[in-house]
Structures
1.
Amino acid sequence: MSEQNIGFDIGFIGVGRMGAPMAHRLIDAGHKLTIFDTNDAAMAPLIAKGAVKAATPAVVASAAEIVLGSLPTPAIVHAVALGPNGVIKGTKVKVFVDVSTTGSVYARKVAEGLAAKNITQVDAPVSGGVKGAENGTLAVMVSCPDDIYAKVQPVLAIIGKLFHVGQGPGQGQTMKLLNNILSATAMAASSEVVVMGVKAGLDPQMIVDVINAGSGRNSATQDKIPRCVIPRTFDFGFALALLNKDVRLCLEEADAMGVPMVVGNAVRNLLAITAASEGPNADMTDIIKPVERWAGVKVGREKK
């Protein structure tokens, strides 16, 4: 019988929109979780399911050899991992798996800091949104040595499909940034063409149906626009501020490598405009709204 089947202790830090469904899946698979989040309400459903509440990340890291972190910003990841009450102060932890999106620079900083205490950092950012986290269908981009991958694979396989993209810290993060700038670009470009089509008198559902049958299909036309824009729900579940952060990190890393990102910079500009008009907590599908206003049309209509 495998460890995965009998269950073993795991730590989980950050049980918000993405972290909570991943944590639920781990409990449902038989694992015993010790959790920490700054929001007590976020922890309550997991505690009701048997998770143990910890007072600090250090306490989590004193309860489990493998600790996962799902956190919103690079600075928070850095503080949780290396701060005075951070994972680095734990007495049991051996592996810290960061499923957040921080960029490769922060991943390497965290890895270097934890290595001083013989803790291995694994960057394993995920893609697939809240629905993917709930269904266990996330794409998990793992970067770590082979022996550590063998240790974390049974755990991460519960939350999604694994891709062992590299051996060193930061490579998983780079892979995630590549994915997210393409996701943002697809949403931005698709917003423009669908708005143009609607202004020309075309039906928005027909627009995406035709595009999805041809060479222009992408994640926005196949999912986000028909599911979240045409019915005017704008509830894909990924905050604009987080997407903006990911695009910024990607452009910064590209610039440091000397790789041009002409289209990426244009996408960042549209994201900034959307954040200014819709607010940083807007959904990423709200990207279409400033384009609609400029064109003087709306795509779809609210369901009654």
2.
Amino acid sequence: MKKLLLIRSGSRGNEVLQWQLFLAGLQLYKGKLDGSFGQVTYESTRAFQQLQHLTADGVVGLKTYGAALLLGFDGVQDDRKTTVGTNWPPKPINLKALANEAQRQAKFGKIEYTKVSPAGDAVKITNAWERNNMELLVIPQLKPFNHTGKVYFHKKAAPQLIRLFEAWEKAGLLHCIKTFDGAFDPRCIRGRNELSCHAFGIAFDLNANWNGLNRVPALIGQEGSVRELVPIANEHGFFWGGHFANRLDGMHFEVAELK
């Protein structure tokens, strides 16, 4: 087991990034997830210490680590196999999310669109892409969540979506699903001028209330955790948003590879 590293103002690296992600999951950190311990990280650390009735010195020492570990922070790196902590499941080695809109267009067709409003993320598809590429599926395992089990998804990825939910059911993991929070949604990525995977009909969201954007996704054993679903999703070509490098999105699953 590696020793804990003291992190404080001026520290940089993955340890700082993990600390920022932890604070963001507690809604205490609103800054950039950049692995740099600056003023915002300092103030957020002090806020955490105050809530835990610790000396609010802005330094992540042993007592601060200890309080954080009790709340699920995976600050100790342990090379034993475990399903506890923020680093499980491990990020897949041979599966990568499609990096940009150009890659998504290459696999799933070119969408022409206009913005619904200059300030919003919603778009209106203006060519025949939706008619030519989308399909209405029935996923029986989703009937408890939307009554019909119907999901609008890209034709190319529809078979593997059906197989994924069948595999989750076979593995006895459907209890992990608390809410189904949508799939096809013509819009850009939040805050970016780039089409989301939802616009291509190749993504869906689960358990949004427990796995919000830029928050540490719920841990194994906590309500709303989707972590147990991830390894099987990876096997079926779906990448988990909890493995995004700088923009955690633990509710999100998207097609990375057609199978």
3.
Amino acid sequence: MSAETGVDALLPAEIARRAESIGVKKAGMSFWNVFVLAVLAGAFIALGAVFATTITAGSFTTRGADNLSVSTTVIPYGFTRLIGGLAFTLGLILVVVSGAELFTGNNLIVMAFMAGKISLAKVLENWGIVYLGNFIGSILTAGLVFLSGQYTFGSGAVGINAINIAASKVHFTFLQALILGILCNALVCLAVWMTYGARSTIDKIAAIILPITAFVAAGFEHSIANMYYLPVALFITQFDPTFLSEHALKVSGDLTWGNFLFANLLPVTIGNVIGGAALVGLVYWFVYLRGDKQTEP
């Protein structure tokens, strides 16, 4: 049974050739198609972040059989990270299954460049358009979530969690954020790589779940997710002082737009490119495609 008509997942060498052809196709798309699909991807990743923020907010309170006794359980750190990671997989599932352009996954376009099928200018053009679209989609979703008041749910637990998540992300050193970004996108691109070998929607979802859950649970840094996590917290802290006073929140002075862009987003983005393009894309190109290189017409 041929690779084209089979039902089994593609083998790694076949995945590499498919990744190369997908890279060529992505690089040849029109500006507006790429941009609109990138805005969607930013929104999809933000929705995964909304889900993760909500599901890991606060403690769990349960009532006894008599409906009178109450107990509060604080979920262990590792389990909280696990369920948050599982919730966050929604973002990449929406990107892959619904069809959208995500900067971190598009780092695999480097395989088509190394095979001589597209120019470096086309790679950078695609990355630039997609990154901008992802930023707009993420921050618009953050704005909508803020305006909806969703962060006040759970007696404010969701908003408190959002602020705590954001505050933790602006305290990394540049090197630490860079390396966390490398580790993150190695897993993201491995997830995308495996979806290229999938034959069905269920296969694609199964390929996504564990790598994405792993990066979130481990605390690695994803540039596009952070385009939601930090802005939504900044919107809350800057435009709803009543929420802060009601919950006696003291916000770190480091949680600023400048630190979002330069202390977190910049090093994480660089790390994401290294982790996705170099550690996954270039490695698999070297193993499976380097003998196929041709000069771009």
4.
Amino acid sequence: MSSIPEISIAVCTYNRSDVLSNCLESLSNQSASTELFEVLIIDNNSTDDTKKIAENFCAKHVNFRYIFEEKQGLSQARNRAIAEAQGKYLAYIDDDAIADKDWVKNILAVIKTDSSMVAFGGPIYPWYNKEKPKWFNDEFVTYSYWEQHFQLTEKNCPFGLCGSNMIFKKEILNKYNCFSAEYGMNGDKIAFGEESLLFNKMLQNKENIQYFPEIFVYHLVSDKSYSLKEAFKRSIQNGKAIAQIRGSKPLSIDFIKKFSMLCFSLFELMILALPGLFSKALLYKKLKKFGYFAGYIAEILRLGAKK
């Protein structure tokens, strides 16, 4: 690119060549001028056709760059994007997400509204590449808050925004030492918390973080999303990550509250087992809730036992 872009967009990817093209295509079809943004394709040690697909897009679009990051882990890939980014702002989108055609345009418009804002983002809606089961509701995979713009605080949104639609001033990421490599996905290992930890630190310091409903993307709902077992496993890992961030201790007020919620969610699952009350959609929701609190409590006990 001949000029320095305002925004760098990071697509961190690992062995997702089957869906990566959808994301890159949406970024190549943005309504904003290509001179205003660059796309960084961060290949996190993929062994499939990721490089080939990425290089094909780079050959067609001058604002696309392919970067190989051998250190395994989503946090490592996200941090590599920080080091490579030329823009003042860095936007993250998942490799299986599709950006709205005005995504970059709306990001640029928001940037002009408040120069003190260090981070912002918006909702994530589902998209399907095949027919979904009749029992599966869009709300299960929709990540949005209110329908209007609002300011995040440690009280109303302590763990910030979702990772597939978040934008930062590059300088704020360096200020908070980027994303912790102790959290997040690592190869095929399911783990969470890297963006939650970062947002939580920022919100504790009352940094200016905002939510804009007009900045949205669509996230692929894979076949795994319909699995009760997979939903339960992911919820457990999410609960563990949040427990680590909070740093609660056994028998603390937070522990007692979460343990009570765990018992209540278990009771809800037992009720669903009664004849005539079974609903797969409701079971899906309650199982995720139980998994989250189970992971939370288990992690507090594990950390407490280590001390």
